[in-house]
Amino acid sequence: MNQCLRCNKSCNAASLFCEECRSLLGRQVDRGEQVDVADFATSPQVAVAAKTEAQDDPLERSTMPYPAVTSLPETPSPLSPMIAYVNTVEQVFQKLSDAARRIASADRGQRHRLPPRVSRLAPLRDISSEIQRHSTPMPTISDNVHAGSNDDLSRNLPDLWPWLHDSDADEDEKDLWSNRSDPLMSRSFEFNRNYGENRRRTAIAGLATSAMARQHQKTARLRAAFFGLVILVVLASTIDTVLLSNAFLHSKSNSLVSNGFPVLTLSSNIANYGQSITLRLRHFSSLARVALTRDIEEQVQLDATSSLVQVGRDGSADPKMLIDSNWTPGFHTIQAEDTATRYTANATIQIVEGPTRPSHLIIKVTTLDLGAGILGSNTIQPLELDNAGSGAITWSANSDQSWLMISPNQGVFSTSQTIEVGGQRTNLKPGNYQGRITFSSNVGGPQYVDVTMVVRPLPTNAGAVLSITPPLLSFTATDGGADPNSQYLIVSNPGSQPLYWTLGTNAPAVIPNSLATIDPNAAWLSIDQTTGVVVPGVTTFIRVNVHSRNLLPGAYINTLIFSSSVGHTALNSPQNVSIALTIQRPCGLVLSTGSLSFTAVANNGNPSNQTLSLAATASCPGTIGWQAQPSTSTPWLILTPASGQLRGTASASMTVSANTNGLGPGTYSTDITVTAAQSTQSVMVQLTVQAPPPPAAPILNASPLNLNFSTTQGQPNPPGQTVTITNTGGSPLMWRTSLNSQIPLWFGASPTGGTIPPGQTALLTVNVSASSLSPGTYVGQVLLSGTDPNNVVAGGSPQSIMINFNVLPPCTLQQPSSSSLAFSGMQNGADPTPQSVTIMAAGNCNWPLN
Predict the structure, then answer these.
(1) Structural contact between residues 686 and 597, judged by C-beta atoms closer than 8 angstroms
(2) How far is residue 101's CA from residue 39's CA, in Å, rounded to a whole number?
(3) Which of 524, 557, 514 lies closest to 308, judged by CA?
(4) 699 secondary structure, DSSP code
(5) 516-530 pLDDT, tens per residue?
(6) 3-state DSSP of 310-378
(7) pLDDT of 327-380, one tens digit each?
(8) What angle do CA 506, 364, 410 make, to 5 degrees?
(9) Three-state SS at 739
(10) DSSP strands (E only) in 169-249
């Protein structure tokens, strides 16, 4: 008899459960309830077996696909084959029950621990296929049961495991357990239930795993994209850093350097004919081309063939300039313009070769005959303006007749300038015509040129007639600024047949020697039409544009040649149209002098201060700021103030002082760089410190060392100004004056000399007169020299007093650019092109004019 595995009651020797437990188990299976085998495994054998196998991992052992079978003991078991069979069965089910219980317990624990998110469900492993009869761990059995440990288990136990042999064993099994409760059937029911549950969990886990896999794939893709983006960002940052570094270095080398603005200084500010002067270019953009000119766009003669100089990578160059006979005596301004940035640097030089002639406008002809022509024809003739003196001439011109035109009608020049005078016969009746051109300038009164022209009628059956109006167009632009607005030409046909016209090759009629282009291949003139057909009584408009970006300051003239097309004829063919472009200098500064000099005696106090006057050019806006600083570190030079603002035509003053404390005898020099807008102006400063004379020697000192006068032509002369002469030595000072003027008879000094006791002063009065001067700026110098009674040169001698006299022209209202206007159009057609009348004031005017 055996004991029931559930209730320990006596049961059949061939059964593991009693009839009551078997019936209970069957009912539960029939109702579909889940059967927990652990409830039926309460025998002591089960507990002992579980304890015996506690040291091994039951989950690991139960999930192994081919679990190892315990080796057979060498000592044969004393049990009979039936007892061994029963024990084997009991141990097998004991281990199966224990494994199932542990699996169920583990499953329940895992279900409780699953996180709420499906993506975090741990994948479950299906072990139902691994728990099979042939892989069930076997207990120790006798040698009679196992004929050999290497044979198949089913063959070694033919009587114990009949279902392992073949399909016929199933029938024997049914017979053996007929009308009985087979514990393996219970086990089968439980495993089927667990297997279904496991499949459902596996499906859920599969979904979770699939979702997780998809999430992982998506995350992997996002992670890959993120890392790719990071790599791209790093690469972009690296490339950007390199580019920024290169751009920074390149911009640094091609723009204004950090240690100052572009500066032009001279090796000497005083020169004679035949002398070479070194031009020091500093702080320009790297490898830039710098255009060198003097005064108003006059070329300078360099060692190189061109006046365009290319600086080095550090923005520096030292070209040499020759002073030839084309330079007039007096003061001249040298300008260096960076063609890349349009920044200008200026310096002043004085040519000491005889007296300076004042600027004077000369027009070589006073009458001009434009000849005769039929209706619709135009005539253009050149007219030259010259300067008989030194300096710049600012001029403007207007006519008293609408048919008489000038291009350009205003400008500035130093030596000469050529303009065009045009006569327009369109819309005029046959006859003789007379007109007058009035020229106004800053260096004198108005000058006149009388012009005559004859208009003849059209011949009978004239056919096609070519008429172009106006014959002259004038544009004005600022250096580096925007292009001026477009203007229009009108092509008309006063004849009786259609006009077929074309525009021939346009070429500059006049190119002054002083002009240069940044890009020689760039055209500065463009036209929207080059050919067309005009029927009688109809007009065609042609738009004309000029491009000033590639041009340096100056005056440019180009001639357009219109003619009839090939295979056609027309009267008045060809016809010329002159296009003038004036490029003005950008905003800059005008200084009262280009050099300052101080003379002092060591350990005897500082020399007198000097004044530097500043003014803005006409192209500057209402208010601009300026600043000044020495070009090198010079502790002995003091500028007060060092910055300020210029408003309109009003000038500003800066005091320049020299501090000789701590300086030994010698000559010290530097340059003052005054910056405003896109321009710098350099002023050379020289300090001479003399050795201390003997205690009994006289010492000459004078103050102020600058005198500035201004007046308007025709107005009374300004009052005189005084200079104080002081003797700081120990003996009488014998002093005298000498006048250094390149233009005589416009200033004087009195008294001309005298004696000053030690510690005493004397007054020197300087007067100017504009009666013989034309408008302009004049510079003179009063030299003070001193000696002791023995005619030994006194300390501090000589002293130089600079005199600046600005003579302004009187205020006059110029005649309008045209005294009459003529418009032409067709009924119900487009409005005719607007025309303008220029009214200008000249001279020293206070706006507004009434």
Answers:
(1) yes
(2) 9
(3) 514
(4) B
(5) 566 655 678 888 888
(6) ECCCCCCECCEEECCCCCCCEEEEEEEEECCCCCEEEEEEEECCCCCCCCCEEECCCEEEEEEEECCCE
(7) 888 888 999 999 888 899 999 998 887 777 778 899 989 999 999 999 999 999
(8) 55
(9) strand
(10) none
